[in-house]
Amino acid sequence: MVSMQLQEILFSQGFGTRRVCAGLIQQGLVTIAGTPIVDPAMEFVAIGLHFTVQGTPWQYHEKAYLMLHKPAGYECSQKPSTYPSIYTLLPAPIRQRGGGAAAGVQAVGRLDQDTTGLLLLSDDGKFIHRMSSPKHHVPKVYQVTAKHPVDESQIQKLLSGVVLDDDPKPVRAAACGKTGENTLSLTLTEGKYHQVKRMIAAVGNRVEDMAGLHRSQIGELVLPADLKAGQWRWLTAQDLLAISAKPASGA
Ligand code: URA
Q1: Which of 112, 151, 165, 166 is catalytic?
Q2: Which residue's CA is the closest to the ligand 1 atom numbered 3?
């Protein structure tokens, strides 16, 4: 197992420049197993390492894979135009990991500012590419609240395919079902711009304006009930397996 200097470990995890990281260590603000380590050059096996920085517990992650429960009223952009950025919901080290121009994690695809639910973020370019590539057809499940009552003919049209204004090729839901008077569940394996809202409009209904759209699942990974809007957590190895699992077992 490869050892790394403690200042390099902190630097790789987004705690600032090498100088800042060395300073944090020299001031006794970094502990391992409860003991302050004051030598920035002391080496540790990084994989699996737990430490605290200024009292906050942290674990070394070679690459970052997280899920965020996106609240309404946040934009998935680093430079938002109207609403705050989702990136403000993450701790500074996660936003600064790696340093340089392409620092920090990036969202895997985007949700509209008024959409809530499961959003993945990572600093692993290959993972982001694989998850966002239309070739991979990772199913995404959305819960829709519509302005008007949902009827069976709308569900059938969503399943058989509707034509959107930018492409003559019909787009269809991989699964779709009514879940209440004005609500439905819809599974998509592609991600065109505003796709759910445009599909619902194409069948003569409309997604409710605020929080009418919620993403509840990506692949087999379901947004955990205890992850409240605005909260994030690291993905586990099991979560990562669930995302690459192909089948969407229906809406
Ligand atoms: N489809 C939409 O219309 N909006 C989203 O945020 C996601 C899917």
Answers
A1: 112
A2: 194
102 pLDDT band, cuts 50/70/90, is: low
pLDDT of the residue at 249: 47
Average of per-residue pLDDT across 39-54? 97
Domains of the chain in sequence order: 3-59 (3.10.290.10), 67-251 (3.30.2350.10)
Q: Is residue 192 in contact with ligand 1, taking CB distance under 6 Å?
A: no
- Determine the Cα–Cα distance for residues 159 and 144; give it in Å rounded to an integer: 15
Residues 6+ apart with CB under 8 A from 206: 146, 147, 148, 197, 200
pLDDT, tens digit, 9 for 90 and up, residues 11-45: 999 999 999 999 999 999 999 999 999 999 999 99
pTM over 0.85: yes
Token couple for 83: 């609403």
The rounded Å distance from CA 71 to ligand 1 centre is 14
